[in-house]
Design brief:
This protein has helices at 53-72, 99-110; strands spanning 4-6, 23-28, 35-40, 77-83, 121-123. It has 132 residues and is an alpha/beta fold. The protein has a single domain, classed as Rossmann fold (3-Layer(aba) Sandwich).
Length: 132
C-alpha cells in the first residue's frame, strides 16, 4: 500500500496557496494526481437549528462547495463531506463520540472504503459502533 498523504489545515499551507479552510486532504500520491479530499464540517450543515445560524451557515457553505467540486474535479479525485455529529471535544464539553473513532471513519472515507460517490455526505454517526 502506498504511503498516505496528509495536507492538513489551510493555515498550514504556504502563503498565497488557496485550499479549503475546513478541508483535510488525504490520498495515495504517486505523482499521478489521484486521491481523495474530505471536507470535515458538521451535521449542522444538513439540518439547522435556531441560535446557531452563523455556525450552520458556514457548514452549509462547505457542503455546497464540496458538491460543486465533485462535479469539477477529475474522476480519479474523490471529494466528500464528513459530518462528525456530536464529538467529545472542548466545544461539546467532552460529550459525544470518541474523537479517535470519528477520525478512523474519516480516514476510511479518504481511503474510499465506504462505498460513497464523490460529492456524497458521510454521516459519521452511521458508522460508529454502538456496541459496548
Amino acid at each position: 500500500m502506498k504511503e498516505p498523504y496528509f495536507a492538513g489545515r489551510c493555515s498550514d499551507g504556504p502563503a498565497g496557496k488557496s485550499r479549503s479552510g475546513n478541508g483535510i486532504e488525504f490520498g495515495h500520491r504517486a505523482g499521478n494526481g489521484d486521491g481523495a479530499i474530505v471536507n470535515v464540517a458538521s451535521g449542522l450543515g444538513k439540518d439547522v437549528y435556531p441560535d446557531y445560524s452563523p455556525y450552520c451557515g458556514t457548514k452549509c457553505c462547505v457542503r455546497g462547495f464540496t458538491k460543486a467540486m465533485a462535479r469539477e474535479l477529475p474522476n480519479r479525485v474523490g471529494i466528500y463531506f464528513a459530518n462528525p455529529g456530536l464529538t467529545a471535544t472542548r466545544m461539546t464539553g467532552y460529550q459525544g463520540a470518541d474523537p479517535a473513532s470519528v477520525a478512523g471513519i474519516i480516514v476510511k472515507a479518504a481511503e474510499e472504503k465506504l462505498g460513497k460517490r464523490s460529492g456524497d455526505d458521510i454521516d459519521i454517526w452511521e458508522y460508529l459502533d454502538e456496541s459496548p
